[in-house]
Design brief:
heterotrimer, A mainly alpha (314), B alpha/beta (515), C mainly alpha (357), A: 314 residues, mainly alpha, ABC transporter involved in vitamin B12 uptake, BtuC, two-stranded antiparallel sheet, 14 helices, C: 357 residues, 13 helices, 71% helix, globular
Amino acid sequence: MDLIDILLSASFWTATIRIASPLIFATMGELICERAGVLNLGIEGIMVAGAFAGWMAVYSGTGLWTGVAIAMLVGMAFGLLHSLLTVPFGLSQHVVGLGLTLLATSLTYFSYRLALPQVTSPPKIEAFEVLPIPVLSDIPIIGPALFAQTPLTYLAFALVLAVSITLYRTPLGLALRAAGENPAAVAAQGLSVTALRMGAVIVGSGLMAVGGAFLTMSAFDSFFFEMVNGRGWICIALVVFGAWKPGKALMGAVLFAAFDALQIRIQQTPIGANIPYQVFLMMPYFLSIVALVAMSRRAEVPAALMVPFNKGER
Amino acid sequence: MQSNDKAQVVLRLNAITKTFGKLTANDAVSFSLHKGEVIALLGENGAGKTTLMNILFGQYTADSGTVEVFGRPLPPGNPRAALNAGVGMVHQHFTLADNMTVLENIVLGTQPLWRPGFDRTGARARIEKLSADFRLRVDPDARVGTLAVGERQRVEILKALYRDARILILDEPTAVLTPQETDDLFHTLRKAVDLGLSIVFISHKLHEVMAISDRVLILRHGKLVSQVETDQTDRKTLAALMVGAEVEAPKVDPVTPGPALLKLDNVGTPDQGSAPGLKSVTLALRAGQIIGLAGVSGNGQTALAAVIGGLTRPASGKLELDGETPQGWSPIHAVHSGIARIPEDRHKIGTIADFDLTENAILECYQDQPFSKRGWMNWGRARDFTRRIIDTYDVRCPGPSTRIRLLSGGNMQKLILGRVLEPEPRIILANQPVRGLDIGAVTYVQNQLLKARARGAAVLLISEDLDEIMALSDVIHVISEGRLSPGFPRGTMTPAELGVWMAGDGFEGEHSLAS
Amino acid sequence: MGSKGNTHLRLEPISNPTLARTILPPLIALGSTVVIASLLAMIAGANPFSVLGLIVKGAFGSKFAALETLNRATPLIFTGLSVAVAFRAKLWNIGAEAQLYAGAVVTVILGTGALTLPSIALVPFIAACAMIAGAVVLLIPTILKTRFGVDEVVTTLLFNFIFLLFVSMLLEGPLKDPMGMGWPKSARLIPEARLPRILPGLRLHWGFALAILAAIAVWIIQKRTTLGYEMQAVGLNPEAARFAGIPVRAALIKTALLSGGLAALAGFSEVAGLKGSLTLDLSPGFGYTGIIVAMLALLNPLAVIAAALFVAGIFVGADSMSRAAGVPTYLADIMLATALLLMVLAILLTRFRIRRE
């Protein structure tokens, strides 16, 4: 069977992990925001900005890791703007998030046009290269998939572990989870809800930007308009699918990426060639909706998600 | 417990003043608390007790005045400083995160945030020792979301003790407890005093204040009007001081009850999370009769009100109106069946804050003529209706196009009363109708209920205030974990006897009968 | 974190705001938007004053420019109304883009010769069918919301991507113009299916008039009908609405039908009034821009007309400015995003006083 061949091929699993990597960064970023009680719909625009910033930095001559850092800082700047409007001022997280996506996207395209006024095909950069881990990468199938990737992919997996440990094993994580569940509990213990939530949104936005930067620095080696193409919205669905838990969200991202890798391969089979390619391209969005519906009954939403906390209220 | 002159002053408030807009919540309030002393802060709802304590705890900043703890001034607006100085507060609305365990809630914020991990073993040992010392039984690994109300309160107290609180502030702690649980709480508090803690106990329940405190401070309209030693006063004096006049119990003339207008026959509804549903409840509301529903909040009152108010249908058993099962049951059916519904939460459920008075007045009847016809609104008629309510029910407001969020609680409640009573309902469901109102509004609302009873309406009065229930009801039922006690006619039960039922103990005999 | 914990912002509602309090913040917001745009123009190496002048001139400077702005405003009025209707009921419809294309697809299916009726019957029939299609497209996320509690923000956003791919599929398959020389483009509408021009020789079609009528109709629905009252109540406090006996789900469904239908009219009017056929670039994000239009109009249907003209003016003006001054046309999007964010903040400041604690 074709399908079995595909599922047993190392290239399929390698592609799956590569496709999952940017989603993992951005999903962790969104998860941190939402765990602290803030829905960040700026994610799509922040990913665009991160993709451009990292790529542009390297194109201008900085090192790759400096590029990642710059992308992250740009994301954090947008996160600061988002959190200022939504946390102390308590403005609608829907409106601010969508406005921020528009702002980040248009600022990025504006900057791109300024930096490269005349180009028709954007220049490529020397992107991250695959860094196989000795011995481990020789394991059949999962070896190349997990241990012959770029450093950014390894970082994505390390990030899930770090987020998980922070949320469940440290005083900071305790405070963040409480801020998303009942901010009054945090305030009553002498901590600042505002600081916690703003911090979460700023750091989370930085991670979203790194997710965007992965696209230009570890996948396509170049920047195109519309390259993020709804990945941010998919990450929001993945957070719900993962029931706001880092490990489950990781599983969701990998599962999702596997479907994506699979549809690309089925397109190339004789049966797939008879189906309009748009059907395959629709699949990720369609699956996201299915995931949302499937998880809707069981999901444990942070109780204070999207609820602004205003201390002097009475 | 001991004379004040030899004890150390642990807490001193100097001329605290706080205003919210035009409202003066605290007006130059000063007092001091001594080591090992229990003082009661007594006052009506809205007298400024909670505001004062929130200032002390740093959650609000006073406009003027200072707080001293153990002789050192407390920086304003900083809960962390208050916690570090040894002030612990048990809030009226619990400040617990439901998704976390008891242990996690207790250690939250007690360790530096940037530490890589926390010491669960040490924390557990300390919590277990405190539990034993203060007789506060609770499982450290239980998720708070699964705990009963009494247990949650114990967690709140443990939170304060875990931080070495020397001064405990308890804001209306007994509102959610049965009389028996209240006794347990008092044991814990006495234990704490023996160990050298000092306590501020906020309440508006006189008998509790008499039972636990050494000294009573009375707050009225934001002013500290009196301070008395508890053993030199009595309930009647305190009541008069609290409201500024002798309180008169509402006068209830005997009325012969008429036929049953609404009947519940073995009605059951599913539990909603930690809130119990109804467990085969049988109840009859008769014309000219007030049925009082006593019970600790969260024991099925909401479920019962939801069934009668049309928000949920009985999952088992049946509901009858005039002996017949209605076709379909929804809020609209309830309204059209002549049920007046005074909701528990007038801010969130009873009104829409950003609607004006007119829009709020027609919420339940906008689909009926003359307020609308074939989908078109008639705002002129709606405004006439609102003006009539404003006049008849004495709603103090600038006019029918004022947004309702600008009204006081009492005036808001009067508008709701007008909305539901104007069509002369046959059945009245009054869920906590006087909660949070000042004494004038309380009397007004209670008299409206008595008037409706006199003209033959059937009234179900749900209240956590046993005194109110006992004063107004012809028959009292107690609800506990969704089960309903038999009806007790006026004057046949003492508060203590009702308390046994509220704790769920009276039902045992019935159970064995049923099974 | 602890030491910072003692300063807090507190929002205190203002019961009787002064005139200055009501007018100044929005004006400052718009002023700041212009300042930011000027700074960006300077960064792009242009004279900020000439850039702003060129935008205004490009939008309203000539009869041709003004008509172009009116034409561009037409779909924005429809999508702005669609969003305003939905947001008022707190139904977060971010999917006006998909609903717009649904309307356009139906217009092409019915208007390219499948039906031959006189214009007076055909055009209204197509418009009605387009509205139904848009309504159905929004109905799906709305039912997912009311039945399963799935957040409609994400589902409507995802539907935009799905629907655009669906349109692409149609344009390369069944709807492809045989004469289109391989381009993914539909056949042209028959003349009877076209919206005529309001005045002969003037490049403005009846779609604009329809948009104005739609705005007035929505305004009447909101002010005068039980449906408008229900939608507002559900948006402000669904729990209280349910308690009072307002059919919350039904009101949300009706809101969705109206909102989706309005967005679909944008697609209908673009195809039948302006373009005459369907391509994948029919809408340069009219659905998303509708959100900005609605927010700038404070969700008031009559103000949507003004906001749509403002937004269309910026787009049209920026296009012509870009050609003349070389500043990227994305400046228009930046201005709108900035205006949106500053405006929501400004509205907050008209209603609340900020206190430091």
